[in-house]
Amino acid sequence: MTVRIREVAFDPHAEEREHAATLAPGAFGATASFVGTMRDVSEGDDVVGMALEHYPGMTERELGAIVTEARERWTLIDALIVHRVGAILPGEPIVLTAVWSAHRAAAFEACRFLMEALKSRAPFWKQETLRDGSTRWVERNTPGSTPGSVVGDTSGQTVGQTAGDTSGQTAGQTAD
Questions:
Q1: From CA 146, how far away is CA 168, in angstroms rounded?
Q2: What pTM does this model have?
Q3: Quick one: CATH architecture of 2-20+31-137?
Q4: Do 111 and 32 touch, CB atoms closer than 8 A?
Q5: pLDDT for 56-76, tens place per residue?
Q6: Could you read off the pLDDT of 135-145 as tens digits, one per residue?
């Protein structure tokens, strides 16, 4: 399990290759990864930059807890999260999540889980700079999953909801 916070631009594909090279040859049969990049439009406005802030120490602990949770849910060989902070320009990578496992189902499902959990639980704050020079804080993340949409999660739990937590159930749902 590796979590990295980067203050400068990074090459997500090089990060993934370098991390995979640390694993035993033939140890994994599947790799799934996701790269999130900064868009130049948000809420219909042209965006020319973003400042991404985090809470040092707390952010890494939460990302580590997310990876640990994924390793408890799926049989994984390894996982990697690289997240950018600081000044970011459109087109630059913000986040890489990568998972190595014996089989594709675990890799796909765990990679998606890492990204969705990161977006909803990790302490990051985004301030966009618009083309007109004004700035605004991003108040909500773009939707990535809805209840029960995380592949392989047949319990109807949302990302971050734990087994036995029935608070997110709708009328007529029962706990598994």
A1: 11
A2: 0.81
A3: Alpha-Beta Complex (3.90)
A4: yes
A5: 999 999 999 999 999 999 999
A6: 999 987 776 65
